[in-house]
Write a structure and sequence with these properties.
Radius of gyration: 19 Å
Largest sheet: none
Shape: elongated
Helix content: over 70%
Number of strands: 0
Order of helices and strands: HHHHHHHHHH
């Protein structure tokens, strides 16, 4: 299992930087200093490796969000901590990764869509509900519409026709969009809480 984890780590690192299309099994084997035969002993082909690497990454993000949700004192701190987590996750990821999945790796892309439409959607909805309950978000918010809105804006950084690679950094785009979303949610009490948290985190 240790070698399999190393393969997945190496593969995901290369895929996130260069996309899946341009990275071959030879590239991964060379980066690891092992033979290509070693890779095929654990994964039938590149498509299976891509699927496992992406699914593993999505599980990691999902687990990180669960830990953050439990540790955060309130809905605002949860979103601010998620911002920090996404900043680290997307710092070295290129936006065309998702496009490569859509075009060349349908199983991996379906895994992403499943994550987006279940776990991510639930996380957003739960945060909105929590913030309203805590009096930090406005009570008149439409949770359903805003959940769908946030899901859509979260995907914007993966669209090169909107944010061209080389001109925009994914982590910066995600941070700005999420911060903008947060400020649009909060009550006056919530606004004060944001400013207090930002002082703590700075």
């Amino acid at each position: 299992m240790e070698i399999q984890e190393r393969i997945l780590d190496t593969a995901f690192h290369l895929f996130s930087q260069f996309g899946t299309r341009s990275i071959t099994m030879d590239d991964i084997a060379h980066k690891m200093g092992v033979s290509k035969k070693t890779l095929y002993a654990h994964f039938a082909d590149k498509d299976e490796l891509v699927t496992h690497a992406i699914s593993r990454y999505l599980r990691s993000v999902e687990n990180d969000c669960k830990v953050i949700r439990t540790a955060a004192e309130d809905a605002i701190e949860e979103l601010l901590l998620v911002m920090q987590m996404l900043d680290k996750q997307f710092r070295h990821m290129k936006p065309f990764v998702l496009l490569d999945l859509q075009r060349y790796h349908s199983t991996a892309y379906q895994a992403f869509l499943s994550y987006r439409d279940t776990s991510l959607q639930s996380t957003i909805r739960d945060n909105l509900t929590r913030g309203i309950r805590e009096g930090l978000y406005r009570p008149d918010l439409d949770v359903d519409i805003l959940t769908k809105y946030r899901l859509s804006t979260a995907m914007l950084c993966f669209q090169p026709e909107v944010f061209a690679p080389g001109l925009y950094e994914m982590n910066k785009v995600q941070h700005i969009l999420l911060e903008h979303f947060l400020y649009g949610l909060v009550s006056s009490k919530g606004f004060e809480r944001i400013e207090a948290y930002k002082l703590q985190l700075s």
